Amino acid sequence: MTSTRTARTVVAAALAAGLTVTALAAPALAAGPAAPAKKDHAATRAALQANVDAGVPGAVAQARVDGRSWTGTAGERGGDDRYRVGSITKTFVATVLLQLQAEGRIDLDDPVEKWLPGLVRGNGHDGRKITVRQLLNHTSGVYSYTEDPDFQQKVFGAGFLEHRYDTWNPRDLVAVATSHAPEFAPGTSWRYSNTNFVLAGLVIEKVTGRPYGKAVENRIIKPLKLRATSVPGTRVNMPSPSSPAYSTLDPAKTAPVHDVTTLNPSLAHAAGEMISDSADLQTFYRALLKGRLLPKAEMRELTTTEPVSPQYPDYRYGLGISWQKLSCGTEVWGHGGGIHGSLSEAYTTRDGRHTLAANVNADWTGDTQAIIEAEFCGTVPPKK
Question: Would you please indicate which residues are annotated as catalytic (active-site) residues?
Answer without folding.
Answer: 87
